[in-house]
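Open question from group meeting: does this chain pack into something compact, or does most of it stay loose? Before anyone orders reagents, we agreed to write out a predicted structure and look at it together. Recording both the input and the output here so the notebook holds the full record.
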Amino acid sequence: MTTATAARPAAMSDQALRDIAAKLGVCVRPILRRVTDTTTGESETVPLPCGSTRERVCPPCATKARRLRIQQCREGWHRTDDPADQDQANDPESAAGPVEPDHDHGGDLAPLRHRSTRRLPQFPPLPVAPMEHRTVGRELTSPTGKTYRPSTFLTLTLPSYGPVHQDGTPKDPESYDYRRAALDALHFAKLMDRFWQNLRRCAGYQVQYFGCVEPQRRLTLHAHAAVRGAIPRGLIRAVAAATYEQVWWPAHDEPVYVDQRPLWDERSSTYVDPDTLVPLASWEQAMDATYEPDAAQPAHLLCFGEQVDSQWFIPGSPRTDRRVGYICKYLTKSIAEAYDPDRMSPRQRTHLIRLHREVRWLPCCPECPNWLSFGITPKDPEPEMRPGHCHRPAHALENLGHGGRRVLVSRDWSGKTLAEHKADRAAVVRAALAEAGIEPPDSDRWSADQMGDHRTPRYVWEPVDITPGTDVETYRVILRRQITERLRWQQEYAQAKQALVAARPPDDNCSATDGQRDRGTGTCRATA
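Structure tokens returned:
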């Protein structure tokens, strides 16, 4: 495609224009803002990327987000410098250990109550290891004297809820435990947090990880994770088998209100029974009841299934690069897209709808309106709450109970924020253009004002008032302008890379079999 072709797309259909934009990496649903320069008084309509991470919503933005996560995963997996040393140097008090809290409240407040920390007898004990102050893996030496520092790739999966067919649907839908599957999905993040906590204690160092939550064919959640450092497979299996999480919530096995729902009482700012007008139990009262000896049972118990896998990988190998891409493979798709929406069989659709029905009516958090169905006023109640109509992401069909983040990253993984990784990618392009004598595009000239600079802003940002009948043409003009601009940038960048490659002598150590050239600078990046 040439610049001339993109310069006259007026006769193109909207879908054709979107297809061209998506192919060139241009956001297909930009957010329009009017920027006014307070110094000159000039105004300009600026398109901002929508930033969606879903491929079905905006393929270019989703692809860009996925590439950014791949870079984040790769940079932290085999890191050799230890940020734990720097953290201790910056915070001398951290070496003294945690400060014990003061529990003496003078006797006026109610005494603090604690759950028992005794492990459940049906789970094996956790392995024990002395803790070391490090976040990186150990360097190993082979019998030949070669040193290497491997890291771990692991997979964790939830247990079975019943036999399934090859397409992921239950063989016997009536005996399939949909309720447990829905509850496990709603609280999966808690189980993962507990696993990382246990793994750090048992591995003996501050394990750092980059993980992604994905759906299996049966619509059950599982997680792939890159872990820094070589952890024995037997240890990982032992930790997974001994990890569980108890959800200490009020019991919500059977709904109290099915054909009717509680009423909101303005005077007491709470919900009441529709027949007797007696106030429902508040969230605090319902939680207090869980401490009673005859009711001291968790509302739900989570654990992992038997499918636990782990492998070691050497830094820089092609297998490692492929595994990084595999971890981030499904980040642009929703949980429900384990079934292709365009090729879903009737049996798969039935399975999807039935699981979502369970997720829709179960509570996702203390503030969830679904507690009303179980005779409990949610925490921080509001008028017009309706069971089955919680607005939180966990109840959406596309998420099927997983309302948290799809990417799980530890604090000391790469030593950079996601914004810093994004700046690094942009710096590679700018450096290549500058070295070739091409002025980089000044697309971030308003970034300081946009991100909330504390100085007096020079630019004033306002939403564009889109009126019916004019929005379609406005977006067409914006999209055509962005397509033309992107084609020019790509042409300049290609010329810059060619100039760099021609100016530098070939690297004898870089070949098609043992290395690859960096896309930004043309230099060799060994992968063996």
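Observations to bring back to the group:
Confidence is low (pLDDT under 50) at residues 1-10, 89-110, 446-454, 511-528.
The CA atoms of residues 62 and 527 lie 27 Å apart.
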